[in-house]
């Protein structure tokens, strides 16, 4: 009897949800993110795991909160491929992530007006507005209000920032899997 | 041969000095220095302090990524604690002298982590220093496709059969006497 390879095992629900949310945050940062994700899959030679747009759509819909939730399977090797893509894209937008995370802090400290950084605040608000819009469009009715969704979007920015460095891929995989055993 | 390497990020610079061979690979560290741009604080030390700093920052940033704010200190020499939602206080307390305290925001903390990740990833500098994430996560293999479920099922059935075999057969219940069948009487017109 053939034994299941470790890489072919199905990912736990928490990982499926978080990966989809991180991709949603990337989409909120960049209008052309879907093309960037597909280009990145080809560039990183991950087409074996995720060959095309339809497959990517199907895998993202393994997030149980999706409107089009599919009872499909996201394997560990496919999840690792997505982690690699997220870390690579986060690295490319590292400068933007720095700006948004710094602006988050300045807004909380009430320094935007004093420092004349309204432009940066507008960038952050646009990201948050797009994230909430995409969430309403793609996910089922959520008990979370818009303010809670914005707070989630800010947490995802931090996650992306810490995944954007030299060891971003390992760090992101670790943070996804620790506690999901 | 004396070698110096520098890892520069927008908010902090890590310089390491050491000794290496003709292949330019630094194998022995003689000292390191972190310089934080925002307040010009410097942290200097040797291999032991660098290792502790590396471990503490790793554990803290991984916990931070997972939404936890407090960690158990690796050593009393290096402490890293959350100060509200956006600030992180790094304290270096060496046995001699005053403690060095640096308050970092999240992006500055990222730069501190990244400078060390670049050092760990550099094969030319201290090759024995690698990114050391806590215990690797093991996914459990599921049992689909194995023969164990079938075997355990068969054994369970066998055990139940043996247990039930030893039970006495209950005596038959006495049959209740038959009730007289009521006769149908046709109604009078």
Distinct helical segment count of chain B:
3
- Strand percentage of chain A, roughly? under 5%
Percent helix of chain B, as a range, is 25-40%
Q: Output the radius of gyration of chain B.
A: 36 Å
The most extensive contact between chains is: A-B, 33 and 32 residues
Order of helices and strands of chain A: HHHHHHHHH
Question: Helix and strand succession of chain B?
Answer: EEEEHEEEHH
In whole angstroms, the N-to-C terminal distance of chain B is 132 Å
Strand order, sheet with most strands of chain B: 1-2-3-4
Beta-strand residue fraction of chain B: 25-35%
Give the uncertain stretches of chain A in residue-range form: none
Folded structure, characterized:
The complex is a heterodimer of chains A (181) and B (189). Chain A has 181 residues and is an all-alpha fold. Chain A has one domain. In chain A, 66% of the residues lie in helices and 0% in strands. Chain A is built from nine helices and no strands. Chain A has helices spanning 13-29, 33-43, 53-60, 76-92, 94-108, 112-115, 118-138, 146-162, 168-177. In chain A, helix 1 runs parallel beside helix 4 (76-92) and helix 1 (13-29) crosses helix 7 (118-138). Chain B is of the alpha+beta class. Chain B contains three helices and seven strands, in the order ββββαβββαα. In chain B, strands 1-2-3-4 form a four-stranded antiparallel sheet, with helices on one face. Chain B has a three-stranded antiparallel sheet with strand order 5-6-7. In chain B, strand 1 (2-8) and strand 2 (12-20) form a beta hairpin. In chain B, helix 1 (47-65) crosses helix 2. The longest helix of chain B is centred in the first third of the chain and has 19 residues, at 47-65. The radius of gyration of chain B is 36 Å and the shape is elongated. The chains are: A mainly alpha (181), B alpha+beta (189). The A-B interface holds A 1-4, 6, 9-10, 76, 98, 101-102, 104-105, 108-109, 155, 158-159, 161-162, 165-167, 170-172, 174-175, 177-181 and B 10, 61-62, 64-67, 85-86, 105-107, 110, 113-114, 117-118, 120-121, 131, 133-134, 137-142, 144-147.
